[in-house]
Amino acid sequence: MEVEGCHFQFRIALLGDAAVGKTSLLLRYVAGAPGIREPELEPEVAPTVGVEFYSRALQLRDGLRVKLQLWDTAGHERFRCITRSFYRHMVGALLVFDVTNRESFEHIRDWHQEVMATQGPDKAVFLLVGHKSDLQSSRCVSAQEAEELATSLGMAFVETSARNNSNVDLAFDTLTSAIQQAL
Ligand code: GDP
Ligand code: MG
Fold this sequence. Notes:
- By secondary structure, the chain is α/β, with parallel strands linked by helices.
- The chain has six helices and seven strands.
- β2 and β3 form a beta hairpin.
- The site of magnesium ion has 4 residues, from α1.
- Keywords: GTP-binding, Hydrolase, Lipoprotein, Magnesium, Membrane, Metal-binding, Nucleotide-binding, Prenylation.
């Protein structure tokens, strides 16, 4: 489907506990857009689910253009507070934890389960994101155990920092490529 000069539209959600850094990661990505289109930093709001989203156009490797619709779960992070309609048509999700917050890592399986339980036949593509990688001295989740979790759930793992702007584009590019391959 053609969307504003784009060949595809991908609806992607950022999921994970409150305060892991989802909004910061999203804003870093949207604000850092290399100008296919000026980023719009005022979120759009889907009134039916009350969830904010941002859009960014992206050129895929083969020249196809995709519009990413990036859904933030602002204030809806309490488990099971997100309505099923939120997950409808969602093609991908970043499952975000904070590398300095053990509990947020342990909740990743719950977030994954929640999406899997509410999905239709078209399964979403996931990426595990260990965020706040700049805080190495207080980290309490190792890259190795995060890798192991990602492998057991069948997804890739990327460590990011919005503060250092580390791997932010890589995280979204990795997920977008995986979605494209799953089409
Ligand atoms: P959300 O609730 O998951 O959307 O998290 P926020 O984006 O609101 O961030 C929660 C807190 O973590 C804020 O104080 C942010 O400044 C902080 N934060 C977000 N990203 C990073 C990061 O990459 N590194 C560090 N050190 N702090 C971050
Ligand atoms: Mg937020």
